[in-house]
Amino acid sequence: MKKIICHKDTKALRNFSREFFCLLVFSLFTIHHSKTQAQTISLDECYTAAAGHYPTASQTTLYQQIADLQSKNLQTAFLPQVQLNGQAVYQSPVVSVPIKIQGVDIPEQNHDQYKVSVDASQLIYDGGLVKKQNEILQLNSQVQQQQVQVDLYKVRDMVLQAYFNVLLLNQQKEILLLQKSTFDKKLQQVNSGIKFGTVLQAQADIINAQKISIDQSVIEIDANRDAAFQILNLLTGKQINSNTTFSLPSTITNDDAVHAGRPELTLFSLQQKNLSLQSDLSHNKRLPKLSAFGQGGYGRPGYNIFDNTFQPFFTVGLKLNWNILGWNTANHESEIYSLNTQIILKQQETFVLNTDLQSIQQNADIAKYNKILEYDAQLITLRKSIAATIENQMENGTATATDYVTEQNNATQAELNWKIHQLQLLQAEMKLKNTRGY
Fold first, then answer.
1. How far apart are the C-alpha atoms of 401 and 202, rounded to whole Å?
2. Which tens digits make up the pLDDT trace of 193-241?
3. Using the 8-state DSSP alphabet, how is residue 438 labeled?
4. Which residues share a beta bridge with 114?
5. What mean pLDDT is reported for the chain?
6. How many whole angstroms separate alpha carbon 63 and alpha carbon 346?
7. Which residues of the chain does CATH 2.20.200 include?
8. What DSSP character marks residue 80?
9. Which parts of the chain sit beneath pLDDT 50?
């Protein structure tokens, strides 16, 4: 009875161990699968990620913070300005009255003099100068931030290039692996013929050599693709790898919004507005400015220079400043701003011209690939037909393995070219989309 119990216990322990092992394997597989589950990413997502991750993007916030601090400094112009002044001097000649009047004692000033005072002023009216300066300050910040957007827009070209490099390399690898699978199947037939003595070993060697060549090409593709992954990761801050699925971007365009999405045009507009405000500022500088002031202090002598004792003193008043003769400087400055505005307009015209020139070439590329794709379809049909004929001839002994490999390569290359031309067409459309600002 004791042996039977031990046997049952051992059997139960084995069953428990087997169930625990299966559960552990399943859990590890689930965890691994969840980690390696393929993610899907789009070109627009890469654009957005790059715009937020690229180091230049952080400058936008910094420029705004600087503008806010400068604006606070400007607003202090309407707060009371208070200064503490003090001085101690020794004066060689002093004020004296060289007339002797009988019965009148006219004191002589001391050569050492001391004064401590608090000077205060309050700006009452500045002709709108601070307000205009603050508007220019905020607009300058917008110009700087828009320049950041212009720089970030250029990053789109790098993202686009790396993204389509991955798509092209994925397509090449897929076609090559399909070709290798075809060669594997054919090699099985050839090895069977070698076994029965109907086919020479050289036929199998030719196919094996081609498979090795494919493996080398795949290694090269994987290396180039890994480099493209690293570039995208650096640009976007994402974790993109071979498990990531790249979706094909949309080719929808909006011809009514030509150039409208380009940040350069917004930058030109802000620069022109900035010059207009600066022209207004030159006129504000000539307007009268009114302020109140006051001074209170303690020293020797005070305002009464004939009193040699330490005494308090104070004064208050209003002050008006008005540059009546501007010598036409405001008009000259306005002309300068007008000329600078014309320069910006010429820069804008140059930008539009250059983008139109780029668009002409990109439209030509699109037309070219559309035409090539029409011939690709015909070429694939012909190459596959030729490859099938050679394959039948090889089975009948009227064609060699070299002939078979050559025509299979031609058929594969035709299909690969078709896939590549499709992606190149899409890439040309995306470049046009970026150029035109759709």
1. 8
2. 898 888 889 999 999 999 999 999 999 999 999 999 999 999 999 999 9
3. -
4. 88, 300
5. 87
6. 27
7. 80-91+107-125+288-321
8. P
9. 1-10, 12-13, 16-17, 20-36
8-state DSSP, 294: E
121-154: b (≥16 Cβ within 10 Å) or e: eebeebbebbebbbbbbbbbbbbbbbbbbeebbe
Give CA 174 to chain center in angstroms: 32
Local structure of 275: helix, strand or coil? helix
Which residue do the tokens 């020479």 mark?
200
What is each CA distance from 328 to 49, 255, 415, in whole angstroms? 52, 48, 75
pTM beyond cutoff 0.85: no
pLDDT of 98 reads: 73
What whole-number distance in Å separates Cα of residue 43 and Cα of residue 156?
10
Instruction: Give the angle subtended at the CA of 336 by the CAs of 134 and 343, to the nearest 5°.
Output: 95
Q: Do 341 and 279 form a contact (C-beta atoms < 8 A)?
A: no
* pLDDT of the residue at 263: 95
What homologous superfamily is domain 37-79+126-287+322-436 in, according to CATH? Outer membrane efflux proteins (OEP) (1.20.1600.10)
Give the Cα separation of 366 and 423 in Å (integer): 11
On the 0-12 / 13-18 / 19+ scale of CB atoms within 10 A, 363 is middle
> How confident is the model at residue 258, as a pLDDT?
65
* Nearest-angstrom CA–CA distance, 413 and 336: 63
Q: What is the C-alpha to C-alpha distance for residues 188 and 1, in angstroms, rounded to an integer?
A: 60
Cα dihedral 71, 76, 78, 83 in deg (nearest 10): -160
CB distance 163 to 46 below 8 Å: yes
Rounded distance, CA 294 to CA 271, Å? 42
Contact 51, 155 (CB under 8 A): yes
Token representation of residue 387:
């490859």
- As separate numbers, helices (DSSP H) first and strands (DSSP E) second, the chain gives 8, 6
- Note the CATH number of domain 80-91+107-125+288-321: 2.20.200
Tokens, residue 195: 């076994």
DSSP for residue 208: H
Residue intervals in the chain for CATH 1.20.1600.10: 37-79+126-287+322-436
Q: Using CA atoms, how far apart are residues 301 and 397, in angstroms rounded to an integer?
A: 127
CA distances from 281 to 138, 264, 313 (A): 14, 26, 39
CA–CA gap between residue 280 and residue 271 (Å, rounded): 14
